[in-house]
Amino acid sequence: SQQGEEDPQALSIQEGENATMNCSYKTSINNLQWYRQNSGRGLVHLILIRSNEREKHSGRLRVTLDTSKKSSSLLITASRAADTASYFCATGDNAGNNRKLIWGLGTSLAVNP
Amino acid sequence: GAGVSQSPSNKVTEKGKDVELRCDPISGHTALYWYRQSLGQGLEFLIYFQGNSAPDKSGLPSDRFSAERTGGSVSTLTIQRTQQEDSAVYLCASSLTGLAQWNEQFFGPGTRLTVL
User: Fold this and answer.
1) Could you read off the pLDDT of A44-94 as tens digits, one per residue?
2) N or C: which end of chain B has fewer CB within 10 A?
């Protein structure tokens, strides 16, 4: 079953702008991960945020987690054409194992040069 | 070092035939996962191997699907009597262990299966 729901489903921005994607989930989680998928590099892990963390940064990426609202956001600052990809959130269950990451349907991001 | 590799990259088969998909995980990774991704969809968990433990097969959609992992390394996903709805990209991933709470999964490039 798909727990994570990303929105928007599709996003188109100009190079240099910021892109924000959101993910909502239904059950208690141990951690939430964001992945990027494009035709060139396949599916790649971006960042993991644990349930006791509220914000995390990695380069141009900023992830927030609000467990009370069961939601997370991924912000990409100063976007580049190379950021064009689909972005997925995936949640690890509250039992603390990552055997069955539950995946959302993804946000398709297009960064126009 | 080498990442996760999968073969073949593309497979076209006729309905009713059996197919085997192969995954070579990253050396030293004890956890291996198979997922299926249909066009425009997220990932659907199929099966998980952790070391020498019995695999978690709870995601396999039918008894036509099976998987093995030999010697704790290479894995083969077998689909018997393929159906058109089996058409999808099959992704393999590995991680250092599936038991820790925060191990990222490293994905292979996938096998695109088309059942005619």
Assistant:
1) 999 999 999 999 999 999 999 999 999 999 999 999 999 999 999 998 766
2) N
Residue A33 contacts residue A48 (beta carbons within 8 Å): yes
Distance to chain A for B105, nearest Cα, Å:
7
Of B33, B91, B101, the CB nearest to A92: B101
DSSP B18: -
Contact A105, A81 (CB under 8 A): no
Residues B42-78: b if buried by 16+ CB within 10 A, e if exposed? bbbbbbbbbeeeebbeebbeeeebebebeeebebebe
SS3 B86: helix
Q: How far apart are CA A37 and CA B29, in angstroms?
A: 22
Mean pLDDT rounded to a whole number for chain A: 88
Chain A's closest residue to B55, CA to CA, is A99
For CA atoms B62, B110, A89, A101, the dihedral sign is positive
